[in-house]
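Quality-control log, excerpt.
Job 1 of 2 completed; input and output follow.
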Amino acid sequence: MEKNATSVGSGPYINDSYAIRHLHFPINIKHSIRYNQEWHSDIIVIILLVTTSILSTVLSYYFFDIKEGWRAITGGIFAIISLALFIFLLLAIHKTGKPHTFFKRGVLNPGIICHIGDGYVGILVLAELTINATSWGLVSLQAKRLPGHNLTLGERIPVTCCFIENDSGHAFAIAYALPIAWGTNDASVIQYGIDSIPQQEWDILEQLKKRYKDLDRDHFPLASTLPERLQYLTSDEIKKLGLDKIFES
């Protein structure tokens, strides 16, 4: 595959798994910096870690005085805190420090606009979450800006989702849900993502779109990092909708 080619195929092998359906596309870094609101939230966390790490280092230096026992202990505690924060900072930068990171890892999923609010649109995403038994779920997210789309009710939005294991170990939970439009300003890439998702999944999502109001009850500005914004479908629903047959070879 050419470096800048747009295609759909298996994603990279990460965390002992890989995306069955991943959209490979040339990511526009400047565009992603501007529009990827999940990354904006991560940057706030990184800034907080930098600030607290520096503060802990300063306090450690201030309190550490070998001549006074309590100051040495206090300084040592702040030194340990500073080191721990620095390690967390490095991990955070490695994992989420780049605005395009998760566009390179996720699974391509169908999303539709189910609500148009004041300064945002509400999107419902259908995502496969299988680890052991077949699992599917609905994710609600709010996009403050969605370039390349008409922002109309029912409009199709290709979304890439990245997953983490939940406590049960039977199905994934959502770590990030990112509209492809946050990673590119090329309308043909967005349309390619839409066309690469089977019509059956779009039809099923259309049937389930009324769930958006239930998932969106708390009106958080960002949805994908919050557990209450993910609703697992029951096994009966999965069978009734035919979702258990979609990825059968």
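Job 2 of 2 completed; input and output follow.
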Amino acid sequence: MSLWAAMSKNSPEVCHLIKSRLLDSPPDSLGWRMGVAQWAHGIIFTDLCRSGLFQVSEDKKGRDFRIDESIPCQSGYKVKYTGYRLSQYDLDVLTVIISLLLPYRTGEVVKVNFTKLESLLGKKGGAGRERIRQSLKRINKSHIEIAYYESDLKEPVREFSGHIIESVEIEYKSWVLIQASSGMERLFVSVMPMHVRYKLSRDLSKWLLMYWSTHREIYPIKIDNVCRLCGSRTQRLAHFKELLKKACNELIDAGYLAGFQFENDVLHAQRARGGGSDARQVVAV
């Protein structure tokens, strides 16, 4: 069974939307024919993106190795993480990789051309290629334990434990051999508008886009909750509020938000009609 077919069982509405409306060349038996022109929307893991796993800062101080660290997450989830701190750039790399792996069976080793990765990430040259390599290594070394609980149930209704990417091997600096985790299909997925994301320069803007893409509607959220979830090191809430204003304004300029307001340190935001795309925001849970 292909990764696409496995994901479709958990998130049929999302996968149908991707296949029927968002991709000019959906996955088929001949392989994945994705070019930059079609790279308007990407698949992200709902369960992972409702947490602080992909944080807003890429400074070197945060690159230390974490062991069994509890990750801040949305109510209903429990996440433990072992590995190097992951950034919003790592999410971009993972989103591209997942899209390229969709036609293949989970656990199958897939050979991917570095030029394809560079074109989809919009980065070319030696520095960009090295950054992709380092990101792949971080993702590969990451071990995640996640559980999702509903209401007051003591036992989780959904669990995942393992690596997202089982193995990564660089071959002759031109190819990378990637093996997706055999358990990855148990994670639920959402749609993120990549054509909006590529207009953003701020990590906080990217984090908000990621988080809100996993929700049908944008619900009010406390400023300190955003600060906690996104992994910001800003200590003064007033300073973080200013950063949040700049991030929301950038999302307005990118066509994703129609507006936003703060009421008693709670952020209220309104998604623009179509959310900056022709796609509905569809999520599995």
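Post-run check on job 2. DSSP finds ten helices and 14 strands in the chain.
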